[in-house]
Amino acid sequence: MKALLEVENLTKRYGDHTAVDGVSLRLMPGQALAVVGESGSGKTTTARLITGLETPDSGRISLDGAPPPGPRARPAERLAHARRAQLVFQDPATSLDRHQRIGDAVAEALALHTPLRGAALEARRDELLDQVGLDTRQARSRPRTLSGGQRQRAAIARALAVSPRLLVLDEAVAALDVSVQAQIVNLLVRIRARRPIAYLFITHDLGIVPFLCEDVVVMRHGRIVESGRSADVLTDPQHPYTRTLVDSVPRPGWKPARKADPR
């Protein structure tokens, strides 16, 4: 089977700082891959490069056989890439138009990326909102009147409207409380069971990874230091940094003061 996403020797610098340093990874159709690491590890920059929000200094990205659109790309090329990959941000309040009703945001994405119009478009909009657990009242609401979990559900519905082959989730549950995190993770599991979609799940929280992703890569200082099956990496980590991350996952008897910096 051909890989959906291929990243080879990806590099991105900001002045004297190298945010991404020789990153290579592959994602197969329907696969869920977690990219984990602390703040500043380069995981979010990697996501932005893959989705075309940033341009790499060097390296190759192929998503469904095509590179992300460059800064001079035509609108048609950008739309085509958006139909291949969608990005869900950590804070949906900043990605949703605060003046636009949630149902209108989803309908707008459908109108832009699909041939649906009229009653067919409205039916598909309602179907998407129902899939993520939003009702008619919430569809008529603006983002500021919804909870953080409801806004994230709305952002996911809008991303799914274009039927992407890859959904990139950048710390998509980090700003939510634990109970709402569980709801969103369960939602993502159900979505993946219903449709052929791959996930690139960017997170600093290793505790969530086994519930959503079968594979994981660990980043530190812009580089991948360990990769493999989630069950193997999280139960028998080989790199000292990965071991520190695993030891830092709260559990009964957990004592933060006992956890040492791998440096």
Describe the structure in your own words.
The chain has one domain: Rossmann fold. The protein has eleven helices and nine strands. The strands form two sheets. It has a six-stranded mixed β-sheet, with helices on both faces. Strand 1 and strand 2 form a beta hairpin. Helix 4 packs across helix 5 and helix 4 packs parallel to helix 7. The longest helix has 17 residues. The protein is globular and about 55 Å long. The C terminus is likely disordered.
What is the secondary structure topology, with strand pairs?
Layout lengths: L4 E10 L2 E11 L4 E5 L6 H8 L7 E6 L11 H10 E4 L3 H4 L6 H12 L4 H14 L4 H4 L8 H13 L5 E5 L7 H17 L3 E6 L5 H4 L2 E6 L2 E7 H6 L4 H8 L16
Parallel strand pairs: 3-7, 3-8, 5-6, 6-7
Antiparallel strand pairs: 1-2, 1-4, 8-9
Task: Name a few traits of the molecule.
single chain, 263 residues, alpha/beta, Rossmann fold, six-stranded mixed beta sheet, three-stranded antiparallel beta sheet, 9 strands, disordered C terminus
- Give the radius of gyration: 19 Å
CATH topology: Rossmann fold
List the uncertain runs.
253-263
Overall helicity: 25-40%
CATH homologous superfamily descriptor = P-loop containing nucleotide triphosphate hydrolases
